[in-house]
Specification:
Helices cover 10% and strands 28% of the residues. By secondary structure, it is mainly β. The strands form 2 sheets. Strands 1, 2, 3, 6, 7, 8, 9 and 10 form an 8-stranded antiparallel β-sheet that branches. Strands 4-5 form a two-stranded antiparallel sheet.
Amino acid sequence: MKPVSFRGFALNANGLSSRFDRSFQRPSITPISVRREGNRPLIAAVEREAWSLPDLGMLIDGDAAVVDELRLSLLKAFDTAAGPGALIISDEDGTNERHIMAVCTVVTQKKGDSGDGFVATLVAADDVFWRPVLPSNTSTVMNASPKTITVTNSGDVDAYPTIAIYESGGISGDSYWRYRRFVPIKWTAGGVTDYPCELTNGGLNTTALISAGKLHASLSTSLGVIADG
């Protein structure tokens, strides 16, 4: 894993290079045992210890004009009195960024590096799960029933999606509707609006259309009228 930043401070940029001394480490546990007469203790439970990440080594190797400023920024970011901050890492090629909340318990100067080399110890402040830096978003057009989509979870913890459904846009014209029926209506009087008109005698039987699967039972969502079309 490649360090990217801690509390917003870039760890591999602007004359600073950083690396963990190990690429993998899991939290230790403390077994809780129950003594048994004439036999070995029985492990009844375990307690999880705080997880110290592999030591983070940092080396300032930039322009002499910015070394002091970079050193001060580093010490500020790794302030042991500050609360938890986001530690962002990535794969070695810089992809798949993910983060964990951590605190810095100690930061020391490396011997022989004239103040330009540091080692920091970070401890996870929460559950040991790497979470994506940015949410994964996937969109699709609901044009089939059923419709299946897949969203890739790039983190290490179960995630539950937030689903939003939006109208794709206004429907116009007569090419959208799968089933259509022409119903002629002739009105000769003028000056009248919102006047009811009987259509069922003309062959528009909504019950039969629902039974045939051509119309949804909720007429307001599946029945449209095209005037003069």
